[in-house]
Amino acid sequence: MSFDFDDTLVDSSTELPNRRAVSAMNRHLRQGDEVVIVTARHRAGVAEIFDFLTRYFSSWTIPVYATGHRLKGPLLHSTNVSLHYDDDPAQLASAREYGISTVPWNLAAVLYFRRRDGRCLAVPAAWRPIADLLEGPFGEYLRPLL
Predict the structure, then answer these.
(1) Distance separating alpha carbons of residues 33 and 15, to the nearest angstrom
(2) In a 3-state reduction of DSSP, which class is residue 127?
(3) Within 10 Å of residue 37's Cβ, how many Cβ atoms?
(4) Where are the domains of the chain?
(5) d(CA 22, CA 28)
């Protein structure tokens, strides 16, 4: 079992813990699941993650792996992870390529759309009316404007 850190366990915009993700991680730990953190950060950026773990998970020893901004699938596979929580669609796809089940995190907060040029467009869920327009009959005309 693994969790991403940025925008999964912690909301990067507020630097506060994501309560739902912390609860999910606590639930897995209480159930006896082996839990690791897999971040796309470089190794030098993991001190903040250890501080977070000390504050919110002090009674557990949780390993932290950093991929240095590379896709996580190979590392998840090599560490025998069977389920990965992440907010990044590319990281989720990489995990699935290695047969790892995934939980897309923050989908309630962000809606993703594929633009005509192939790039991914992330829209806050609060913009749901605009998102509905993008998916509706006028979306073809509105998407190039974004």
Answers:
(1) 26
(2) helix
(3) 22
(4) 2-104, 110-145
(5) 10
Buried b (16+ CB within 10 A) or exposed e, 20-33: ebbebbeebbeeee
**Residue 107 reports pLDDT greater than 50:** no
| Chain center to CA of 125 | 16
Task: Work out whether the CA dihedral 57, 61, 67, 68 comes out positive or negative.
Answer: positive
Q: Which residues contact 89 (CB under 8 A, 6 or more apart)?
A: 104, 112, 120
CB 62 within 8 A of CB 113: no
pLDDT in tens, 44-94: 999 999 999 999 898 899 999 999 999 999 999 999 999 999 999 999 999
| Domain 2-104 of CATH type 3.40.50.1000 | yes
β-pairing, 64-66 vs 16-17, is unpaired
Q: Copy the structure tokens of residue 69.
A: 């901004």
CA distance 56 to 60: 9
pTM summary value: 0.72
pLDDT score recorded for residue 13: 76
Asked whether 103 and 28 are in contact (CB, 8 A), the reply is: no
